[in-house]
Amino acid sequence: PHEKIIKKNTSSIINFLKSFDDHIVLSSILCCSKSMVIIDGHHRYYSLKKLGFKKIPVTKLDYFSKEIKNSLDHKHSKNQIIEHGINGELMEPKSTNHIVYCNKSKQWQPIMLLSSLFKVEVQR
After folding, report:
1. pTM for this structure?
2. Contacts for 92 with CB less than 8 Å, ≥ 6 apart
3. Can you tell me the distance from the alpha carbon of 92 to that of 27, in angstroms, rounded to the nearest whole number?
4. % of the chain exceeding 90 in pLDDT
């Protein structure tokens, strides 16, 4: 991880997951393929860990691709974000907002669109 989480958000996700009887479909966590630092999905990651999941599906991406940005204002460089994740010096919650360029629409879109979907069996 490179960001702290908002406990209320994690609690909401946990309660949401617990509300299902059998299974739920979620988006995978997005990680840098070189460092394995989480780029998107911090709250999902912490929620699933807190519920006792040993394996959490991840989609690896080429984080240093020019088609991936940390929002349009470049407040934090990609190298800074990865360093925070590697060093464990977590940034404030929601301090990054990653986007990816879509060649089809010719627009920047939320990076979560690169996530794969996965089925989570609800643990009782």
Report:
1. 0.86
2. 3, 4
3. 22
4. 52
Q: What angle do CA 10, 16, 18 make, to 5 degrees?
A: 105
Question: Domains in the chain and their CATH numbers?
Answer: 7-121 (3.90.1530)
State the pLDDT confidence band at 124, using cuts at 50, 70 and 90.
low
Amino acid type, 95: S
Is 6 in contact with 94 (CB distance < 8 Å)?
A: yes
Q: What is the pLDDT of residue 17?
A: 82
